[in-house]
Amino acid sequence: MNVPVLDFTRFSSGLEKEGFVRDLGKACRGSGFFLLTGHGVEEALISGVFSKADEFFDLPTEDKQPLDIRRNGQNRGWVSEGSETLDETSGQVDVKEAFNIGFDLTADDPRILAGEPFRGENVWPELPEFRETLLRYFSAVHDLGVALHHPIALDLSLPETYFDSSLDAPMATLRLLRYPPSDPANGLGAGAHTDYGSITLLMTDGEPGLQIRPRGGDWIDAPHIPGAFVVNIGDCLMRWTNDVYVSTPHRVAAPKRKRRSIAFFLDPNPDALIAALPGTGDPLYPPTMASDYLRSRLNATII
Predict the structure, then answer these.
(1) The CATH number of the domain where 254 resides is what?
(2) Of 192, 218, 268, 277, which cross-links 166 as Cys (Cβ 3.0–4.6 Å)?
(3) DSSP states along 161-194
(4) Is the pTM of this model over 0.90?
């Protein structure tokens, strides 16, 4: 399976927009994965997030328990090891630990007061600069994710900013992940799954583990380039494009050494209507609200 390397400066500079759009469209229709360089997210910020993730995961369990995602709701907080199963078919428990934040709102925000789906306050550990670092990164990758939807729109023969109004206040999740060294006999770091949202922007520490399974093929190891994002299409965008784009199964094998990654799942705004885009043919799926779709997928993962 071809996992191409795409340099985003080809598009953002305006010098090779058509070529970038063509290459991106091929990747989205083929493997559903590509590596992205030239993305503009500062290396120091990425390193800072990895550092803060290490500080958090190294805290004693009793300090993390008040932040448990099952206590706080709205897909925010700490995910303890053994509390998720991403492979809905096998039911195999994931060997990983995580911490989620979402679109940052205050308690008096009208969207929270109105009970809008997936709107809530983030929860934070008492660690210096933790909140500030994660929010800076969230903002940077959110901007990048929206910008990537510009060539996506052009590839689909839509206006360049077609998706902007559906992504300006998203149900996005920034997830810190740590996979402990594990014997493969004890299970996978993360079971086989497809992502739920529009696109995922994943930064890893270079430790092997991420594997991709082409439709009808065998598992292969995902390539790695230091500083490059692994970008993949999610089920929501596959549905939105009426299966023009491909959401590809992937998993994390049990690592030999500790493995860390930073995932940004860009789900649309809660009220975005996910229906077959113009020009994609007769609808294969009934229209649904983005919030209803995300809820149905998340409910299946929590043990």
Answers:
(1) 2.60.120.330
(2) 268
(3) TTTHHHHSS---EEEEEEE----GGG--SEEEE-
(4) yes
